[in-house]
Each structure stands twice: as C-alpha cells, then as structure tokens.
Design goal:
mainly alpha; two-stranded antiparallel ribbon; 2 strands; 50% helix; binds zinc ion
C-alpha cells in the first residue's frame, strides 16, 4: 500500500506502463478507443451483429448459428407416402425420444416392469424393441424377404433409417422400401403398446400382415403412382 501513497497522504494511482505486456495493452487500448467519438447525447445500444444492420430476433439467430458446424448432424430422409405421424415417430425414436421404459426412467418416471413385453429377455428400450428383440427380428426377416433387401443387418435404429439408400435400387423402389421400413417401425410400436397397455399379444405373422395391408393402403392412396394391384404389392413388383 505504501507505494501508492505520495506525500501528504494522497493516493498515487498513475503509473506509466513499464513492461512489454503493459505497453502492448496500452497500445491495444489506444487502438480500440481511437475511432470512438464522444458527444453530449445520451448513450444508446447499437447492434453490431452479422447479417443485418438492424437488430432483430432473426439477426440474433443468424449470428448465433452461422458459425456452428452441423456437418455431423444426422438428417433423416422424410418419406412422402406414409403419414407424418410415421415420419415423426421414426425421427423421435432415432433420438431416443419415444416413451420407452428406459427413456421414461431417464426423465424421472419409474416403471416397475422394465422388460420388453414381447420377449421378456431384453429391456424396453428403442435399440432392443426395433433391432434386437426376437419378435422384431422375425418381422424384419419377413420384410427383407418380401422387399428383396440383401444383407439386412441393423444394429441401431439409425441403421433402419438408412437401409433404403443401400444397394443399387431405383428411385421408386428406394421410396417404397423407405416407407415400408417406417410403417414397420410404426406397427411394431403399436403392437408394443397394445401388449403393454391392453395385454393383446401379436405374432410375427400378424404384425407382418398388418404392415403389408397398411402400407398398401397408404402407398395406393398417397403415392399417386397410378393403379396398384394388391397381388403385385404382395410380390413387390410393378410399383
Ligand atoms: Zn424383446
């Protein structure tokens, strides 16, 4: 403290910059305020963000997201011929945001019966219900045989959402396979809920049959690709 006092008890706050760091800081400060012009007007805020001269919510949003890297983010393909609920369901399931027992548990909702009701061997979670449960595997086997999908290997829900892009399928066939995969996820989830909440058990054949009927109905009436014959649909030809 004594070095701050000078003479008659006055505080000595002034000192010249005497190190290289202080001199550099002094120069930076000088450069920063050199362009400032002072006036007698009241102070006011001004928006210096990128993208717009005027302040707006859109300008702030642009400023916040423009420098972020989204290249690693998974973007799900939407299928136009299945209802939005199927696309939304698949989108949420991929992010683990459907109410499985596991997802509810993470959010503080405890469900006593945490096993998959289809098999009672695995836990009630997305990866099990859709890609590991014996019942789901049975359904996917039938789907892959019906749609002639070679090498149907899935280890995660995301794998299901990318199957239609594998191989050398034509555009229409890709769209059909994509919709059938989404329909299958939807019907499997319905079967899971029907068993868990209503005690109604469905077999692989019943689930597969429902998938084929529901997807035929949706494709025929929503895809607008001309007439479609049920027998052709069952043989997976002339679509
Ligand atoms: Zn299971």
């Amino acid at each position: 403290m004594s070095d701050r006092l000078e003479g008659d008890g006055l505080w000595l706050w002034k000192s010249d910059p005497d190190s290289a760091v202080e001199r550099a800081e002094w120069q930076d400060l000088g450069a920063a305020v050199a362009s400032a012009s002072l006036s007698l007007n009241p102070d006011r805020w001004s928006w210096l963000g990128s993208g717009s001269n005027d302040f707006s919510v859109a300008a702030v949003k642009y400023h916040l997201v423009s420098r972020r890297d989204f290249s690693n983010r998974f973007v799900m393909d939407q299928c136009k011929w299945v209802p939005k609920k199927c696309n939304l369901f698949a989108w949420r399931a991929e992010m683990n945001r459907v109410p499985t027992v596991e997802a509810l548990g993470k959010r503080g909702v405890v469900v006593i019966d945490d096993m998959c009701n289809f098999c009672n061997e695995g836990l009630d979670l997305v990866s099990h219900i859709f890609t590991a449960c014996p019942l789901a595997l049975g359904v996917w086997e039938k789907i892959s045989f019906w749609c002639r999908i070679q090498n149907f290997f899935v280890f995660s829900f995301r794998d299901l959402l990318e199957i239609h892009n594998l191989g050398d399928k034509g555009k229409t066939e890709r769209e059909v396979v994509h919709g059938i995969i989404l329909t299958t996820c939807w019907v499997l989830w319905k079967a899971r809920n029907n068993l868990r909440f209503n005690g109604k058990k469905s077999s692989v054949d019943e689930i597969f049959s429902e998938i084929r009927v529901v997807s035929f109905f949706w494709f025929k009436h929503r895809a607008r690709k001309g007439s479609l014959d049920w027998r052709d649909w069952c043989k997976f030809v002339n679509m």
